[in-house]
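Reviewer 2 asked us to include a model.

Predict the structure of this chain.
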Amino acid sequence: MSVEALRQQKIYDEGLRSFMINMYNHTAAGLGVSGLVAWFVYSTGLLFSMANSIWLFAFAPLGMILWYSFAGQNWSYGKLRNFYYAFTAVMGVGLAPIFAVYTGSSITQVFFITSATFLGASLWGYTTKKDLTGFGQFLFMGLIGIIIAMVVNIFMASSALMFTISVLGVLIFTGLTAWDTQNAKNIYLTHGGDPRYGIQFAISLYLNFVNLFQMLLSLLGNRE
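Predicted model (structure tokens):
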């Protein structure tokens, strides 16, 4: 390999590393915002005073994501960033009830299990030479399936169905983490290091982490 080729490879590697670190930093910061907001809402008693309206915060993120899906592709970096952190704050309010349902020790344990699973899946997605495009399409079909099953279970209240949903959810969101990581790497290769892509993929990775955490907490968490 020529000196010029080596130089270009070094520039690419450094740029990709910077792009991925920026994406992970936003993902971690968003999780931090959600965690702090959730703990504040629970520890100050706001959770109980707003018990009749907490469902609004449970469904508000869905509306925000739909808005982002239709309009967010053309947003500036600043608007994307502001949306992301507003979204993670609203998510934090919706996540506050976990502190009332599960013990603090089990929440902590499951958080570390989720972190290890997430990091392992993301590392695999970053390093694998296998094209995960078809894998991702299959996972999205599975995601639609568990969403439908969760809606059905609101009326059935079946513990067996909830267990099945949680197990499948762990597999699906672990796979989506690897898929999104590979997509982020490929986007850098084809479109360069536009920081807007870092925010967009941070949103996807954030949602994967939160949903993986909730599925694992349902399976492994100890209730109060």
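The first helix runs from residue 3 to 43. The CA atoms of residues 7 and 13 lie 10 Å apart. We have added this to the supplementary material.
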